[in-house]
Amino acid sequence: MSASSPIPKTIPFRTLDRVSGAVWGLVAVLVLIGAVSLFLGADPTDPGRVWQALLFNWLFWSSLALGMFMLAVAWQVVEAEWPWSIRRFALGGVAFLPVSLVLFPIVFFGGKEYFFHHWLHVEGDPVIDAKRAWLTVGGMFTRDILSLVVLFGLAGLFAYYSLRPDVYGAGRNDGQRSLYARMTGGWRGANEEAHRSRNILLKLGVVIALAYALIWGMIGIDTAMTLTPHWFSTMFPVAFFMAAFHAGICATAILATVFRRPLGIESFVTARQYHDLGKMIFAFAVFWMYLNWSQYVVIWYGMLPFEQEWFVQRFSEPFTGLAQAVPLLIFVVPFLGLLSRAPKKIPGIVAGFSALILLGNWLERYMLIYPSLYEGHEGGGHAGLPLGILEIGVGLGFMGLFLACYLWYLRSFPVLPSPATLSARTPSVIPVPVPAGAHGEH
């Protein structure tokens, strides 16, 4: 490493040594709140609302976990040097993906009569008939579940090769040593393993990036855009998967802030990392606004009834306030707060703005689902905003599941890469040969 490199020569092996009973208790309480909310918050007059709460929370927490993972992929593909000490925090999003996969068929089949009633049993509608090859429950579920298996499987493979070079012969207990032994079968030596993993990850990362854009964009179309089957937008899937990526950046900032002290790595996760994280959060807040404005302004000046329907639903009561709150939380407040250099270097401030963006992102996922299925729009009336104990409680339950998975990840795997893994990277400064006789010429 060069003398100016931010990476130290000696890097400790760090996993989360222990999780207090109070923390596990909090996780259990969050999951319990989610389960109880499904019963206490259920409305007998609107049974579909339970499934809507599950769907939009599944979309939010799965998007957040996948966005974190894709951040780790992006850093790996570009071989960024500055996030070396926080990349594993982003990689930890992969731990929630098996839970997401298990929950998907439950949410899909449990709520299909409520999600897809606009086209499920409709005949003689020319727009829906034209989309009938795509709008079938069997075809939709098959392509979605197979696509998720492929994408999440690639994510697991990427995580395996990211961690494999750093766990050989390590472990603080029998369970951890057994896990590491299974992960490092056929060991070739630290340097060879590090270079081999790097080469695999660079190729795999490109494939995953393309698969993510295609598959997660398709999930957005199937689970959100088809709820208003007469409406369509080519910008929608792009905005959907990029919002997930933005949420992943924010979640990584929060988790690094929360866990860097318990992990004893405060000297490795410094103002340098937070400054660059803050710049990413700021940049993607602007990009989020650009994508959504681009989608809105084309539909606004197009004045086409089918295209306007989706925005009319969201700008009408009782959703008007949330339609205003979402851009304020995701774009306006972070833009103003992170515009200058100094706030981006303070962990608490970066994490605070990240939390506001995640709240906005949670409400955005809510706004993708509920207005499309809201019956109060019919006849011009409204029955109040359907956002209460049920939606918040289910969200807290998903948070508990996510934290349980993430704590397992932090306890199981090192959060800092080994020197061998870092040395396998391409040097950040590449010498350029100068042609003979060129010295002194201008």
Structure, explained:
It is a single chain. The chain is mostly helical. It has one domain (21-375, 386-423). The protein is built from 16 helices and no strands. It has helices at residues 21-40, 48-78, 87-91, 97-115, 117-120, 126-130, 137-163, 174-183, 190-223, 236-259, 271-302, 305-315, 320-337, 347-373, 389-412, 419-423. Helix 11 (271-302) packs across helix 13. The chain is globular. Mean pLDDT is 91; it is low at 434-442.
Query: Largest sheet at a glance?
Result: none
- Radius of gyration (CA) equals 23 Å
H/E element sequence? HHHHHHHHHHHHHHHH
Question: In the residues, how many domains can be counted?
Answer: 1
Distance between the terminal alpha carbons, to the nearest Å?
31 Å
Query: How many strands in all?
Result: 0
Average pLDDT confidence is: 91
Structural class: mainly alpha
Which short descriptors sum up this protein?
442 residues; single chain; 0% strand; mainly alpha
Present the secondary structure layout.
Blueprint (H helix, E strand, L loop, with lengths): L20 H20 L7 H31 L8 H5 L5 H19 L1 H4 L5 H5 L6 H27 L10 H10 L6 H34 L12 H24 L11 H32 L2 H11 L4 H18 L9 H27 L15 H24 L6 H5 L19
Helix pairs in contact: 1-15, 2-4, 2-9, 2-10, 2-14, 2-15, 4-7, 7-9, 9-10, 10-11, 10-14, 11-13, 11-14, 13-14
